[in-house]
Amino acid sequence: MDIAARKGGRNPETVRLIAVTKTVPVEQIREASRAGARCFGENRIQEAVEKIDRLKGEDLRWHFIGHLQKNKVKFIFGRFDLIHSVDGAELAETISRKSLEHGERMPILIQVNVSGEASKFGLPPPSLESTLRAVAKLEGVQVRGLMTIPPFDPDPERSRPYFARLRELRDRCAGMGIENISLDELSMGMSSDFLVAIEEGATLVRVGTAIFGERPAPGK
Ligand SMILES: *Cc1c(COP(=O)(O)O)cnc(C)c1O
């Protein structure tokens, strides 16, 4: 990771590894923690809640990286430090309202669908500016940056243009002077392409398989 950061002209300290623990049992999470991992990512709220509550008392940080339904927002408080996957102003409003009830301000990233793939969650790039302007006004959330998931391709070089696109979108929006938001974080890159993502500016890489091995196929 350090080499990829330097190759991209970046300070390696600006890149954080999120160990993605979906389907990974708590014993293995404890092991990863003993090996030095600090920040963990989950993409399904029910599974996350169970595991996080069992691991209470350990010094772990949790990020939510999956699709979040509005009726599940109540589960994030007291558990997650950052929500990577906010894909619209409506969801941000729900999070904001509930955060204020908890006396909190929840840090979030806005998920952008840079590839335009129909099956992926995330905002289409042309809606990003208006969404940021709307979300900036919400007192219960704090925008910290952007997130994307490119179409899967075993060749990481095929992901590079999408990562570059997210960085360009970020740079453009950061230049608009929208108050009350920060766009410092770029959450991009998974097991197959996190080195390329770091070269293109990722500050958060979400890595599961490369740390914990292959997951069981869905439905097993
Ligand atoms: C599962 C998942 C990852 C990690 O994927 P790997 O290929 O196992 O590294 C990253 N981001 C999201 C949103 C995920 O759901």
User: Which molecules are bound besides the chains?
Assistant: pyridoxal-5'-phosphate
* Helix-strand string: HEHEHEEHEHEHEHEH
Number of separate strands:
8
Number of helices: 8
Q: What Rg, in angstroms, do the CA atoms define?
A: 17 Å
Q: Which regions are unreliable across 5 or more consecutive residues at pLDDT < 50?
A: none
Average of per-residue pLDDT values: 95
Give the % helix: 25-40%
Strand order of the largest sheet: 7-6-5-4-3-2-1-8
Structural class: alpha/beta
Major β-sheet profile: 8 strands, parallel
End-to-end Cα distance:
33 Å
Shape descriptor: globular
In oligomeric terms, what are we looking at?
single chain
Strand-residue fraction? Answer: 15-25%
Topology (SSEs and partners):
Blueprint: H1 2-7, E1 16-20, H2 26-34, E2 39-42, H3 45-54, E3 61-64, E4 82-86, H4 89-101, E5 106-111, H5 128-135, E6 141-147, H6 160-174, E7 185-187, H7 194-199, E8 204-207, H8 209-212
Parallel strand pairs: 1-2, 1-8, 2-3, 3-4, 4-5, 5-6, 6-7
What does this structure look like?
The chain has 220 residues and is an alpha/beta fold. Helix content is 32%, strand content 17%. The chain has 8 helices and 8 strands. The chain has helices at residues 2-7, 26-34, 45-54, 89-101, 128-135, 160-174, 194-199, 209-212; strands at 16-20, 39-42, 61-64, 82-86, 106-111, 141-147, 185-187, 204-207. The protein has an 8-stranded parallel β-sheet. Helix 3 links the parallel strand 2 and strand 3 (61-64). Pyridoxal-5'-phosphate (PLP) binds at residues 20, 22, 43, 65-66, 149, 190-191, 206-210.
